[in-house]
Amino acid sequence: MAGRIGRNRTEFAHAKKIWETSYIENTELFSTDKGWIKMKNRIHQNPAKKPVQKRQLYPQVMRIAASLLILLSIGALIYWFAGTSQYIKVTAENQKIISPITLPDGTKVCLNVGGHTQIS
Asked: Where does the pLDDT of residue 57 fall: very low under 50, low under 70, confident under 90, or very high at 90 and above?
């Protein structure tokens, strides 16, 4: 315990010596009024010129182009899937049997009187 107290005293003496040697006698207290005046003078005497930044057109054009591409792709997909179905409307009048119709999948359909169908 005595060793610890001795080390603490040595550390304290060392810290006290640093504190005393770093003391500056001519210290002024900070004045907010003086600081504000100094800042105003700096602003008005030497206005910092900000570089004019040109709006870059390329990123905006790319965003618009990407949006249009997405919309066109969605439209094309809707048209492709909705437009692939081919409807064939055939009616049989006056008790005539209409010749067989071959559907895109190879199925043959015959239409009889009254709209009844035969599928083969």
From this structure: confident
Same domain, yes or no, for 96 and 110?
A: yes
The answer to whether residue 48 sits within a structural domain is: no
- Pair 96, 119 in one domain: yes
CA within 13 Å, CB half, 116? 5
Query: In total, how many domains does the chain have?
Result: 2
Q: What is the sign of the dihedral through the CA atoms of 74, 79, 80 and 85? A: positive
Residues 92, 79 within the same domain: no
Q: Cα–Cα distance between 57 and 53 in angstroms, integer?
A: 12
How many Cβ atoms are within 10 Å of 35's Cβ, its own excluded? 10
pLDDT by residue (tens digit) across 74-110?
999 888 877 666 666 666 666 666 677 777 778 887 7
What distance in Å separates the CA atoms of residue 52 and residue 36, rounded to the nearest whole number?
A: 28
Enclosing domain of residue 95: 87-120
Place of tokens 């809707």: 78
